[in-house]
Amino acid sequence: MARVLKGQRKREGANKPLLKGKALGMIFQKPSLRTRVSFEMAMEHVGGHALYLSPQEIGLGKRESIADVARVLGGYVDAIMARTFEHEHVLELARWSPVPVINGLTDYNHPCQVMADMLTIYEEFSRLEGLRLAYLGDSNNVATSLMMAAAQFGMQMTIGSPAGYQPKEATVEKAQRLSRGRLSVGVTDDPAAAIRQADIVYTDTWTSMGQEEETERRRQVFPPFQINRALLAEASPQAIVLHCLPAHRGEEITDEVADGPQSRLFPQAENRLHAQKAILVYLLEDAGQLSKKQHRRFEKVVKAIDRQSEDEAD
Ligand code: CP
Ligand code: NVA
To answer: Which ligand 1 atom is at minimum distance from the Cα of 245?
Structure first.
């Protein structure tokens, strides 16, 4: 669906007003560039409206309970997007909201990000299944969502993280369950072993939002996991480099890699727009506005997604 909508906008300069008159309420408890702007523009491109709600305005769970915010806001808008610290807060919103709730990042995961990442990888290799994905750095929210996506698309994943920053066993097991035996996920503290032969090399910040007081400690531990030219030479020569951004150049990634020929950082960032537009259309579309061909593809995608949606939390 993201590819259809992206192609349409590139070819025709515009999308159809699939979500005319629909509104998205966006709750942000943390800062954002990509998530905020891409959701807002995605709604605008399909004739809808997005509303930014800052932490001060909402006071989620402080000024008002999450259950009350969900029910009040859900009476005004057609979908809610929320970026929170605690994952439980997004689940709580979803429990009470009368309209769909989209996870725009929590401390646990970042599913919208990896929708865009999978689109970027597909555009590069024309497939997902069987590709080798190496993630280096902190086993954080982005790494968790990458694992879940790799599981569902039959990719081989290796995580290179220092001891103490590796994924929880329960998360790896969950990914393995989701993959129905297809995912092989390796976890190592050896960065060169993690990246060897990889088709996709992915990294993220060493210190995520909310962990700022650990910054100095993390700066001592993570340098061997920096994606630089020497380490990247261990990957497949055709490998692409991804980063969800914002990047801390000179820490998890060097300028020469971020701006080098293997980098896909900026097409990846643009794809947030297209992938999230697909998520919004999937949740809220007016089917009458789709062409027959688009509708058939849409139905196919929806069926495939439904077959895989066993795990409510992800
Ligand atoms: N990648 C990402 O989610 O960026 P923002 O924090 O700027 O939204
Ligand atoms: N892991 C990062 C991702 C930012 C998009 C964070 O949570 O800050």
So the answer is: 1
